[in-house]
């Protein structure tokens, strides 16, 4: 909704007084300048409700900056923000504080994100929930000062897009926070994350940005979610990203007539979804698509590259439906992160890199053999020599590769032979490709039927799966128990004092 300048000024002055009282009560009056984000940044989403460590996954993946979702209220009508709307994770140093400090100490940062689909569809997004712009501003400020961050993200979708009163409150609160930050010498950026069509924002999404202009609230980046189109169309997901972003550019240009083309493109942000999105296989974003989008984004000078979410960047469930913990396509762990990570500097193209996959999954009767094909592909830079190896075969099973080395883009034959003593069950073997620039491992599922061996009944270990303390797995004929959170650490290789406890043969 629009206000004449004089009326808006009166409303802003009144709300500012309320907000100032709220900020002071929270002890946030004194601010110092957090380190600004780079002009062009890669910051994938981190699902903060999983119990995983953002610092650990940042280090493992190479994603130095994370967008952490989500901050919301515990119940509709509340003005108190929590991580994921849970009172168990308040906005305090006890909730992710040490992880965020660890990330920042290594030169990275986090972008706390308010909202998300669940909050936006249940009335617990803070501007939907709280009717006081001053208290909303105080909640934003508390997150900024508690974690010393330079950007907040507003993930607005579902019912929140149509709540015009909340849209207006949110932007008024953003303006209050920006005024507070300016008065205290602190840089605070604001990004909006919004659903899109293949040709730009819907009218409701554009209205959010128009209302920000009306309220004098600066939006530094408008992230479009280039997935979940649900239009039953044929999709080239990389091309759809380009057309959606061009549509956004055309939409924000009239809102900011004084900005140059380079400044407008810097306001554009892209959020992809690795692999199969919620609609299904017709909307599949591949590592090759990621390379296309990376090169295009670098050339255009867009502001932010992201994807939903870091925990999906693995091939732990190829062929399955869309999931929060895997991409549903054959891929190496961190394939998408490795393509997008160099974007933060904005000065280099991705270094030489490759992918490795194995298909189809094997099924063999004990005493027989089966074959599958190992595929490699160039995902960035030039083709390299890839040395191949197989690990994880249980007793009574041997695996070999021919040839054992290929040039990225080539294939090899994986032959699995079994004896009658092999235990029946499904096993997760690992096929690893190694080059001078690094290595990637893909899971190969082998099902053995018959056989006289005693099967392990625990879930087979998988390199891309996250295990919490107490979880048991089967691996190489033994049961193992995780002592604490782990992922990617092979049972039997961590030593007596390592994460995996050997429970004995099975």
TrEMBL record:
Ranges where the GH18 domain occurs: 40-347
One Pfam match: Glyco_hydro_18
Top-level taxonomic group: Bacteria
Signal peptide: 1-33
Keywords: Hydrolase, Signal
InterPro entries: CBM5/12, CBM_sf_5/12, GH, GH18_Chitinase, Glyco_hydro18_cat, TAT_signal
Xref: PROSITE patterns: GH18_2 (PS51910), TAT (PS51318)
Protein name (record): Chitinase
UniProt organism field: Streptomyces albospinus
């Amino acid at each position: 909704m629009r206000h004449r300048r004089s009326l808006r000024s009166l409303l802003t002055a009144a709300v500012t007084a309320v907000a100032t009282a709220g900020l002071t009560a929270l002890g946030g009056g004194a601010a110092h300048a957090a380190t600004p984000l780079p002009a062009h940044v890669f910051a994938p989403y981190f699902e903060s409700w999983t119990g995983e460590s953002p610092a650990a996954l940042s280090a493992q993946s190479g994603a130095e900056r994370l967008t952490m979702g989500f901050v919301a209220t515990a119940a509709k009508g509340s003005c108190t923000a929590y991580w994921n709307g849970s009172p168990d994770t308040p906005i305090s140093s006890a909730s992710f504080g040490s992880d965020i400090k660890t990330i920042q100490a290594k030169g990275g940062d986090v972008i706390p994100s308010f909202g998300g689909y669940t909050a936006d569809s249940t009335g617990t997004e803070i501007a939907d929930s709280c009717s006081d712009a001053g208290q909303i501003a105080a909640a934003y400020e508390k997150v900024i000062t508690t974690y010393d961050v330079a950007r907040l993200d507003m993930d607005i979708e579902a019912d929140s897009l149509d709540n015009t009163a909340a849209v207006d409150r949110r932007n008024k609160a953003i303006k209050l926070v920006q005024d507070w930050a300016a008065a205290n010498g602190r840089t605070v950026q604001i990004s909006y994350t919004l659903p899109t069509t293949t040709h730009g924002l819907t009218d409701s999404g554009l209205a959010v940005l128009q209302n920000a202009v009306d309220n004098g609230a600066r939006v530094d980046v408008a992230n479009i979610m280039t997935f979940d189109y649900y239009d039953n169309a044929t999709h080239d997901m990389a091309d759809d990203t380009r057309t959606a972003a061009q549509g956004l550019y055309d939409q924000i240009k009239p809102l900011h007539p004084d900005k140059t083309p380079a400044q407008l493109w810097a306001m554009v942000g892209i959020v992809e979804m690795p692999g199969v999105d919620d609609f299904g296989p017709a909307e599949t974003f591949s590592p090759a698509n990621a390379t296309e989008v990376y090169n295009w984004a670098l050339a255009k000078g867009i502001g932010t590259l992201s994807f939903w979410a870091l925990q999906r960047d693995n091939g732990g469930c190829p062929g399955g439906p869309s999931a929060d913990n895997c991409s549903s396509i054959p891929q190496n762990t961190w394939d998408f992160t490795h393509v997008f990570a160099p974007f933060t500097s904005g000065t280099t193209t991705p270094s030489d890199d490759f992918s490795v996959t194995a298909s189809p999954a094997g099924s063999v009767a004990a005493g027989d053999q089966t074959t599958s094909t190992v595929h490699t592909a160039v995902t960035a830079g030039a083709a390299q020599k890839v040395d191949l190896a197989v690990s994880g075969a249980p007793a009574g099973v041997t695996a070999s590769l021919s040839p054992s080395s290929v040039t990225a883009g080539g294939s090899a034959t994986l032959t699995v032979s079994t004896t009658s003593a092999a235990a029946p069950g499904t096993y997760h073997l690992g096929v690893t490709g190694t080059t001078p620039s690094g290595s990637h491992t893909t899971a190969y599922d082998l099902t053995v039927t018959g056989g006289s061996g005693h099967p392990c009944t625990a879930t087979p270990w998988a390199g891309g799966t996250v295990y919490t303390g107490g979880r048991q797995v089967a691996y190489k004929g033994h049961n193992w128990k995780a002592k604490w959170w782990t992922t990617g650490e092979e049972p039997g290789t961590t030593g007596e004092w390592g994460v995996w406890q050997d429970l004995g043969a099975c």
